[in-house]
Automatic annotation (TrEMBL):
One of its GO terms (biological process) is methylation. Gene3D superfamilies: Vaccinia Virus protein VP39 (3.40.50.150). The keyword RNA-binding does not apply. Residues 154-174 are annotated as: Disordered. Pfam families: N6_N4_Mtase. It comes from Pseudodesulfovibrio methanolicus. Its EC number is 2.1.1.72. This is site-specific DNA-methyltransferase (adenine-specific). GO terms for molecular function: methyltransferase activity. Belongs to the N(4)/N(6)-methyltransferase family. The keyword S-adenosyl-L-methionine applies.
Length: 243
């Protein structure tokens, strides 16, 4: 019998009083979503870093489509935040600037990054972009810089495959999601860009860090994730079975 955890898309939805997680395609979900539904969108889409002949993270994003849909499903006065690779940044900036008047770059700086490439500067940050309008909400009760300094996601927070899953040669030793974001980083963004009771969308939710942050901070969430195994992990986190 086929292990359902290895399936990409089963089309199921897991619902709770705090929000919903959809095992779905992000483009399909956004295309069918009503307009002006969310107060904020905070997401970490694929970086497409493998398009230069590599077989990992190699699907190029339709950033123009995503920027349009983000604007369409966002309520007036809402915020968009996307993490992106450095070579995607210009495209995201151009496409989001069609709909939003204020844009600001952001960086997650990781002081504990470990490098393996000798003769090169070690990558120790990830880029993000915040887009909004002149009347968009922003938490004025705190002071926010355009960067956060915190370590990589590790320890109990790092989601691992189930012990019985055949994942890598070192079974169970590799993280389930290779680019899982730190809960602290996401909680900072949620606090800055939304109010209690707001609903936040993450159409590329991975293992559900946005949902965990939203629940802890009194927001509602709607998350979309194509990989069914990640959907299971996100749901376990929302139910409190994992960090």
């Amino acid at each position: 019998m086929k292990d359902l955890r290895k399936q990409d898309y089963l089309g199921v939805t897991s619902s709770s009083e705090d929000g919903d997680i959809h095992n779905n395609d992000a483009y399909l979900f956004l295309g069918n979503c009503p307009a002006h539904r969310y107060e904020a969108i905070i997401t970490d889409p694929p970086y497409a870093i493998g398009i230069a002949g590599k077989d990992w993270d190699c699907k190029e994003l339709q950033i123009d489509v995503l920027a349009y849909q983000f604007h369409r499903v966002l309520k007036p006065g809402g915020n968009v935040f996307v993490f992106c690779s450095d070579f995607q940044f210009g495209t995201w900036y151009r496409e989001l600037s069609r709909y939003f008047t204020k844009l600001r770059k952001y960086a997650w700086c990781k002081p504990d990054s470990v490098g393996y490439n000798k003769g090169m500067f070690q990558e120790s940050f990830e880029l993000g972009l915040h887009a909004c309008s002149d009347d968009s909400y922003f938490d004025m009760g705190n002071y926010y810089k355009n960067h956060t300094v915190t370590g990589k996601t590790s320890g109990k927070e790092r989601i691992m495959p189930d012990p019985d899953e055949e994942w890598t040669k070192g079974k169970g030793s590799k993280a389930l999601h290779p680019t899982q974001k730190s809960l602290k980083v996401i909680k900072d963004l949620v606090t800055a860009l939304s109010k209690e009771g707001d609903t936040i969308l993450d159409p590329f939710s991975g293992t559900g860090t946005l949902g965990v942050a939203a629940k802890q901070l009194g927001r509602k969430f709607e998350m979309v994730e194509y990989g069914f195994r990640n959907h299971i992990a996100a749901w376990d986190r929302i139910l409190g079975k994992q960090v």
